[in-house]
Structures are given as structure tokens and as C-alpha cells.
Amino acid sequence: MAFIAKLEIFLLRKLITKRGTIEILIPLYCTTNPVRYLKFRNSMKEFSNKTLAIRLKGLEKSGILNRQAHNEIPPRVEYRLTNKWQELTESIISLIQ
Length: 97
Hints:
Elements: H1 2-16, H2 21-29, E1 35-36, H3 37-43, H4 49-61, E2 65-70, E3 76-81, H5 83-96
Antiparallel strand pairs: 1-3, 2-3
Helix pairs in contact: 2-5
């Protein structure tokens, strides 16, 4: 069991230290409302669209984000933290402060 916990910590550290990940997690932590892609795009102008999309997909694949795509024109995509990761983000924010 200790090995699994160490592996999870290693993977988490690797994930959150990637460029742009903290910048994505903080707005999601600060609200209970979903955050739209455009809000990320506007607040993270120093990141390319490709980098932002890769980070969002990686966080979704890791089970950190829930992604909801609405069948509308223009397309609307919203992101939320999963419940499990909402708690984890609280710990990360405490470490940053």
C-alpha cells in the first residue's frame, strides 16, 4: 500500500509541476461554477492554444477535471474539478501560500 501511495504522490508531483497546470487549477478551485475554455484562454495568454488544450486533456484523462461539451453553435466547453481533486487542490493552495 505504501508503494501505491508513493507512486500516486510521484505522479501528482509530475502532473502539477507541468507548465500551466497550476494556472488551470486555481480558477477552478476559486469557483463552484464551471469554467469555460475561453476564460482559460483569456487568462493564460502566454500559453499557446495547443499547450492549453494538452494540459486540459491531460487533467481530464487523469481524473482531475470533468469536461462537458455542449452541442451548440458556437461550441461551448466547460470544465470543473472532480470532487476528489477539489479537496486535493485545497492542499496545493495551502502549500503555495
